[in-house]
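hey so i finally got around to running the thing on that chain from the lab meeting. sorry it took forever, my laptop kept dying and i had to restart like 3 times. anyway pasting the input first so we r on the same page abt which one it is
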Amino acid sequence: MAGWDVPKHSAELASAALPQLSGNYLRTSLWRAAGLRIGDRARIMGPLFITSTSGADWRKLVRFGADTFITGPLRIDAGAEVLVGDRVHIGHDVFLVTVDHEIGASAERCGASLTSPIVIGDGAWLSSRCVVLPGVTIGGGSIVAAGAVVTHDVPPDTLVGVPARVLRSLEDAPLSQRRRLQAQANADEPQADTDPAQANADKSCSPALRALS
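ok and heres what got predicted. didnt touch it at all, straight out
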């Protein structure tokens, strides 16, 4: 079949079929044999998927440095270069995206493709489920926290992320809901012959009280 990259697709299938964090040497060797540029002692420990735009040679675009660890799954959209340095650690379900689109007219908002390279500096750590968008350089020694979407360059030795924020207090819940939860907590209280210390411990562990805390 024209356009069917047998070594690449074989490596993708095998890397997905092997158990996560097992068969690392075999998985890495298959990707090397397929033409992936990967440094000494680097390890691919889970599924790796690489797509590229029509006519682009992913073998010339994607490179991993020495002693780099890819937990996987890792998805790379290689419309431009993706250069990963030495001693980089990449967590679960990370996306490296080099392809963007212009905003088109109302009839079709997704316009022409645009590509920009991604560079990950030595010693960086990309935590699970982060997304690196086109044109971003992540400086050496930096950390991208889990779930972060990186849209701009990250200076060296910097932590970036998206920590959870408080939306509202549960004290704002309707009075009827709070009364129902309190009634459930009271029903869970131990009988009178129970040791007082144990009674307090049981009450503190009540699911209803946890919901109100």
